[in-house]
Every structure is written in C-alpha cells, then in structure tokens.
Design goal:
Blueprint (H helix, E strand, L loop, with lengths): L4 E2 L4 E5 L4 H9 L12 E7 L5 E8 L4 E8 L9 H15 L4 E6 L3 H5 L4 E3 L6 H4 L2 H6 L5 E6 L3
Parallel strand pairs: 5-6
Antiparallel strand pairs: 1-2, 2-3, 3-4, 4-5, 6-8, 7-8
Length: 153
C-alpha cells in the first residue's frame, strides 16, 4: 500500500477497499461501492489532528492515466476545504506515480471538480485504458459527467 501522506491539516492513511468505513461513507453519499475490493485500487482515510475522520478518497492507474474515485467528505464536514485538500493529495500522489492526466466520473459534483481545473469531456475522448475500467464500463451510469485535467510532468 502507498505510504502515509501528511497534509497541512489532514493525514491520509492507506486503507483496504474492503474497509467497512469506506463503504459506509460512500453509501451514505449515494456513491458506488461495487468494486472497492478489486485489485489495483488505492484508498485513503483522511483524518484531522484529533484523529476524527474527515473523508475518504482513492484512485486507480489505468495505463499512464489516473482515475480519481470514491472521494467523499461527510456532509457535516463540508465547506471547510477538506474536499480540496483530499483532491490535492490524490492528484499529487498520481502525478508522482507517473500519470499524465487525471480522469473521473461524477453524477453530482461536476461544479466542485470544475472549480479545481477539471473540464467535462465526451465519452469518445476517454482513453481506452480508462474506458476499460470497471468504474467507467459498468459502475458509473452513462449519465455520469466525465471530467479530466492534465497533471504536472
């Protein structure tokens, strides 16, 4: 599993996709949980200095791309910049792993990601390795917005 990352106010600790707290948080936010335990996925629980859980996030690396996934901040903790900090940590991690572009699928959070440099893309623009992921091919509905942003080299 990837090493622990320390953010200015959050600590990201690797967790297994089978962790019940991850599935519970995603279910509470009406996000998919079908393929969390499949191989090739990396997930983190983000906590503050007191140890309180502030959110979850993960990714997979299809080819030289990243698929940001399973990112959630509990509703009671939103509006404090935690989602931005979690996304920044995930983008740093996938860029360090060699990904050139980050992709994601979302049903409700397009404005959040748009304000952080992602832009909506048509499905025909999605690279084949990303399109072949379970997230793209069967977990997310066809109505999900596809978004991407380049990563620093």
């Amino acid at each position: 599993m990837p090493e622990v990352m320390v953010l200015p106010e959050l600590t990201a600790t690797p967790i297994a996709g089978s962790d019940p707290a991850l599935a519970e948080a995603l279910s509470a936010a009406h996000l998919p949980t079908e393929d969390l335990a499949d191989p090739g996925r990396y997930f983190f629980v983000f906590s503050d200095a007191s140890g309180a859980i502030c959110g979850f996030g993960g990714y997979e690396l299809p080819g030289d791309h990243a698929l940001i996934r399973s990112m959630v901040v509990p509703e009671t903790a939103r509006g404090r910049g935690l989602g931005s900090a979690i996304l920044a940590a995930l983008l740093d991690k996938v860029a360090a792993a060699g990904a050139r572009e980050a992709w994601l699928f979302t049903k409700h959070a397009a404005p959040f990601f748009s304000h952080r440099g992602f832009r909506a893309r048509a499905r025909y623009e999605v690279p084949p390795p990303v399109l072949a992921t379970k997230q793209a091919s069967s977990v997310c509905p066809i109505t999900a917005v596809v978004m991407s942003r380049p990563l620093p080299v």
